[in-house]
User: What shape does this take?
Amino acid sequence: MKITNFFLPVCFLAIVSGQEGEITPLSQKVGLTLDAEENLFYNVFLDIDGFESAQFYEMSIHTVIARISFVQYSQQKTSKRKYKMMEFLRMKEAVDVQPIITAEDRLLVKENLTYLQTDEILSGIQEDQYVTIYHRSGRRIRGTLKEYGNKNLIIQTPVSLEKIPIWDMESISYREGINYQSNWKFPLYAFSALAGLILAESWNEQTRPHIDSVWYNRFLGSMAGLLAGSEAFQTFNVLTSPKTFFALTPEEMDRLKE
Assistant: This one.
């Protein structure tokens, strides 16, 4: 009985293995799995939109099956293509004559695979900054980015807290970093303090307080101006920092949804 229990799984695995065939690399430059960057770099399956990966199985000395994973209409799908051995060898030769894909090549190719780097880009956006999101429904959502995680953007608008799945995001405008304009710090603080002092003097002219209250109001106005200067300086830094615009096509948005 124990021997039977041992051999049944082994036989089952052997049958499955025989049906799948043995994985064979398309090229030593690729390895056992052809990924999206390699596919675009070596021009293998350019007719498949949303390509993710592919593996090749040698079914016999005459036949090779390619199992291809791709995203279509928001769903991950798998297809198979059958090749004669000579067809597979021609594909292999077309890859072999090309240079090995480098890290720099992958970065350049990845620029054309926007849907694969969306998560990385959104994770790098600084939180608590003002962003503008164009929803695929046509809405424009403006607010503060509170959090990004699990493929959802959390945006605090003036009236509500919105949760936006990234596949519903047509584009987003944000700032990659905040430029610190140190040469404008003193003028802005001085202007704010002066504005506070002018307001205090205006109040003194209207109320005609005692001399001690006059100087107290002047001091209070100047301090309020300096505090406002800090906020004005931060706002100035944000407004003068360059914006970054990141957009997705409808097809790319669908590929993000699993």
Remarks:
- Confidence is low (pLDDT under 50) at residues 1-18.
